[in-house]
Specification:
Blueprint (H helix, E strand, L loop, with lengths): L4 E6 L3 H12 L4 E5 L14 H10 L9 E3 L1 E6 L5 E5 L11 E3 L2 H14 L3 E4 L3 E5 L5 E5 L2 E10 L6 H5 L3 E3 L6 E7 L4 H7 L5 E6 L2 E7 L5 E7 L7 H9 L1 H6 L9 E4 L3 E3 L3 E2 L2 E3 L5 E2 L7 H21 L10 H23 L2 H6 L9 H8 L9 H8 L4 H4 L9 E2 L1
Parallel strand pairs: 1-2, 1-10, 2-7, 4-13, 10-19
Antiparallel strand pairs: 3-6, 4-5, 8-9, 9-10, 11-17, 12-15, 12-16, 13-14, 14-15, 16-21, 17-20, 18-19
Helix pairs in contact: 1-3, 1-8, 2-8, 8-9, 9-12
Bound molecules: flavin-adenine dinucleotide.
The site of flavin-adenine dinucleotide (FAD) has 39 residues, from α1, β2 and α8.
Length: 409
């Protein structure tokens, strides 16, 4: 901790571990500071194909103890019984043809181990409290004393180190704001027959929100409810399960969880880049959980940041933020595409109009599946173009806010 570093990464989640691993593999001296001991619980269990392509760069193997095969996504309306499935193999050619479900405790530990194996020093149990970045170095204040480096990467997720300090939290006011969720244990064989063999994520449309159903590698079932009603309560998960024919049947006889509640997670950081620092992953922006884009965007952003920063460090240009222009443009395209999609989901009945009306959308379907697979940086996708051309741009309409902070209970 005492010597000067090239790069100090705060947070060892998917964004921080990926950025740290890739920078270290390019020969840079990287210190990753992580507040929590791993393994630890984290939400974000359903991955997208275009995020899992990053796994190869990190040398990650998809072993069955840590990864459950995910063929695609199914959207189901519980009131009308309408359903539509999207198989990632139908997407435009490019990324992997499937994705994976993970337990984040295991996945994040694996990523941390890969970061270490690729040369980053990862220290747990150290909380970063602040930083000074007005000179030729960055001075970081931590619970274990100060540390200095040439560059700081804020990968603190929803703790939002930079955005909070700079009062640059800009909530997406019209997206989902709270979720209640947990893991059911001991599912019946009949339930596994319904879920398998593709293990698609199920998104259940309900009156005032939606529900996720994600089969985990160790045989548990993650069920989460996102509601637009005010005052989210733990009991709402059990109430929903009792009222749902589909999910009720899946978890019949299974051991119910003690639910957790998360709130105020959809926001954008108004100052994600500055002198000798960049934010990556949720610390830069988190749009909404509905299309499982969080880890995919976080890991792709980390790859792009590591590439740009590595070159700037070598050429001693890291003090001039212009080196991030390409990275910034790439990321904004990803965030704009997903925020436009999420806007349609919550405000324009996207699922009824486009997904359930699929036959007319034959030509659009491969590009719809591509966006659902997280493949949002290609120039031959009519659906991605349509989203980018949209006049409703929640990405740009966010404002600074003193709204209630993110919380997990
Ligand atoms: C309800 C809900 C459901 C979701 N479901 C999905 C899903 O199915 N699929 C998906 O892809 N995404 C999902 N997400 C999003 C996903 O959780 C995040 O996008 C993802 O975890 C972001 O990774 P990250 O590395 O940026 O941050 P994190 O994974 O949050 O990692 C940040 C790390 O920084 C550490 N840290 C924080 N502050 C400090 C500090 N001051 N000092 C040191 N360390 C610090 C933390 O301990 C943590 O380990 C969901 C989100 C929500 C809210």
């Amino acid at each position: 901790m005492e010597r000067d570093r090239e790069v100090i990464v705060v947070g060892a989640g998917p964004a921080g571990a990926t950025a740290g691993a890739l920078l270290a593999s390019k020969g840079h001296d990287v210190l990753v500071l992580e507040r929590d001991e791993f393994p630890r619980f984290h939400i974000g269990e359903s991955l997208l194909p275009n995020g899992t392509r990053v796994h190869a760069l990190l040398g990650i193997e998809h072993t069955p103890d840590a990864f459950r095969y995910k063929r695609g996504a199914q959207f189901l309306c519980e009131t009308t019984d309408r359903a539509v499935s999207f198989d990632f193999a139908e997407a435009l050619p490019g990324p992997p043809r499937n994705a994976w479900h993970v337990e984040r405790a295991t996945f994040d530990t694996l990523l941390r181990d890969r970061a270490r194996a690729m040369g980053a020093e990862v220290v747990h149990g150290v909380t970063v409290r602040g930083f000074e970045n007005d000179g030729a170095t960055v001075r970081v204040e931590t619970s274990a004393g100060p540390v200095t480096g040439r560059y700081l990467i804020d990968a603190t997720g929803q703790d939002r180190l930079v955005a909070n300090r700079k009062r640059e939290v800009r909530p997406f006011k019209t997206f989902g704001k709270a979720a209640v969720f947990g893991h059911f244990e001991g599912l019946s064989d009949a339930a596994w027959e319904t879920i398998g063999p593709g293990n698609d994520i199920r998104i259940m449309m309900i009156d005032d929100g939606w529900v996720w159903v994600i089969p985990l590698p160790d045989g548990r079932l993650s069920v989460g409810l996102v509601s637009r009603r005010q005052g989210m309560k733990r009991e709402w998960l059990a109430d929903y399960v009792a009222s749902s024919r589909y999910v009720g049947a899946l978890v019949k006889g299974a051991k119910p969880p003690t639910p957790r509640v998360l709130s105020n997670y959809s926001f954008r950081n108004g100052a994600p880049y500055g002198h000798r620092y960049a934010c990556v992953g949720d610390a830069a922006c988190f749009i909404d959980p509905v299309f499982s884009s969080g880890v995919c965007l976080a890991m792709n952003a980390a790859v792009s940041l590591a590439d740009a920063l590595s070159m700037a460090l070598r050429e001693q240009r890291e003090g001039d933020g212009a080196f991030l222009d390409g990275h910034r443009a790439m990321l904004e395209r990803g965030y704009e595409t997903f925020s436009s999609l999420v806007h349609r989901f919550y405000n324009r009945n996207l699922v009824s109009n486009l997904f359930f009306g699929a036959p007319e959308e034959g030509d659009l379907r491969p590009s719809v599946v591509s966006v659902l697979a997280g493949d949002v940086w290609r120039d031959d996708s009519p659906f991605a173009d349509m989203l980018m051309r949209s006049r409703s741009t929640p990405w740009r309409e966010t404002e600074r806010s003193d709204a209630a902070p993110y919380s997990l209970t």
